[in-house]
Design brief:
Layout (H helix, E strand, L loop, with lengths): L4 E2 L6 E2 L4 E2 L22 H13 L4 E3 L8 H10 L7 E6 L1 E4 L4 E5 L3 H15 L4 E6 L6 H16 L3 E7 L3 H8 L4 E7 L7 H10 L2 E5 L31 E2 L3 E2 L1 H14 L6 H12 L3 E3 L6 H8 L1 H4 L4 H10 L3
Parallel strand pairs: 3-4, 4-5, 5-8, 8-9, 9-10, 10-11, 11-14
Antiparallel strand pairs: 1-2, 6-7, 12-13
Length: 326
């Protein structure tokens, strides 16, 4: 497989696999106490995992200011250290939070908040610029998004960001950002069970990178089958937008059955289940850049080594479609 992919029309080269840094933010919650993180983390293990990923050729790291209410950005910045120039850093803005109480406090779609949020992210990351700055409000109104897009163009002109994107699953919304000269990507859900042909078509038409969150279906395609999840894990009390898990019941049996249905195809060629799931995404489009999460060196190594396994074949994609009856 190729050792790099281009981040859309920016010309910025990245590894074909990125690392998503939501989980390493640790525990945080909404105002009602519902978890928004993935449970407890060991910051030193997170740092070791990031540095191991760097050693294995991963050059793209995706975080957000809200993850762990700033903690993910701080850990990523510390881990990168003097190697910051070797990587492409993506973060997001739009959510408001309280670092002291580690709680989400709502949203701010104002133009004024863009600069304030970026200034805070730069400080936490310990850098003077962000390579890819992403709107984190998936359902923002298109007219407001157009103003935010124009604000991002100003930030590009000032050298504070290199490019920008919208994290949304709506191709019509993504197209609004795509009208901007320095919009270069869209971040959206994509995995074996959640295809996104409309978004991939937009990426091809508008010359955007497809940055793929939830590539392992929140762990289901990594082989995790626990019935009970720790209290601080978002999957223990899943919000409506998170499929595959039930309130206090762990993984949904129907989703687990679908994992079992495609397991033999995904694990062909000596792949782990997770590596096969990433191979499916690479096979869907040459523009895809999956960003699986991680909390340990072992997870980092397994995900990074998927690059050498490469994409699935067209025949394997067709077989998966047949097995899932779609």
């Amino acid at each position: 497989m190729e050792t790099k992919r281009t981040l859309g029309r920016s010309g910025i080269d990245v590894s074909p696999l990125g690392f998503g840094c939501w989980a390493i933010g640790g525990e945080w919650s909404d105002p009602d106490g519902r978890p928004l993180g993935w449970g407890k983390v060991d910051d030193e293990e997170s740092v070791r995992a990031i540095r191991r990923a760097l050693d294995l050729g991963v050059t793209f790291f995706d975080t957000a200011d809200a993850y762990g209410t700033g903690h993910s950005e701080r850990v990523l910045g510390r881990a990168l250290g003097k190697r910051r120039a070797d990587v492409v850093v993506a973060t997001k803005w739009g959510n408001v939070f309280d670092e002291r109480t580690r709680t989400a406090q709502g949203q701010d779609a104002s133009v004024a908040h863009v600069r304030a949020a970026l200034t805070a992210s730069l400080a936490r990351l310990g850098t003077d610029h962000v390579d890819l700055y992403q709107l984190h409000l998936s359902d923002a109104h298109p007219e407001q998004a157009a103003r935010l897009r124009d604000a991002c163009e100003e930030l590009v002109g000032e050298g504070l960001i290199r490019a920008y994107a919208w994290s949304t699953d709506d191709p019509a919304r993504a197209a609004v950002f795509a009208e901007g000269t320095h919009c270069t990507a869209v971040q959206h859900a994509l995995n074996v069970f959640q295809d996104a042909p409309g978004m991939l078509a937009l990426c091809e038409e508008a010359d955007l990178a497809s940055v793929n969150r939830s590539p392992l279906a929140m762990g289901l395609l990594a082989g995790r089958r626990r019935d009970r999840l720790e209290a601080g894990d978002i999957r223990s009390r899943p919000p409506a937008w998170l499929p595959g898990f039930g309130e206090g019941t762990g993984a949904d049996p129907g989703w687990l059955a679908r994992v079992d249905a495609v397991r033999s195809v995904l694990t062909s060629g000596g792949r782990t289940l997770a590596q096969g799931a990433l191979g499916w995404i690479w096979a869907r489009s040459p523009r895809t850049i999956p960003i699986p999460g991680f909390r340990s060196v072992a997870q980092a190594e397994q995900n990074a080594r998927a690059i050498a396994k490469g994409p699935l074949t067209a025949a394997q994609l067709a077989e998966i479609d047949r097995l899932l009856q779609r």
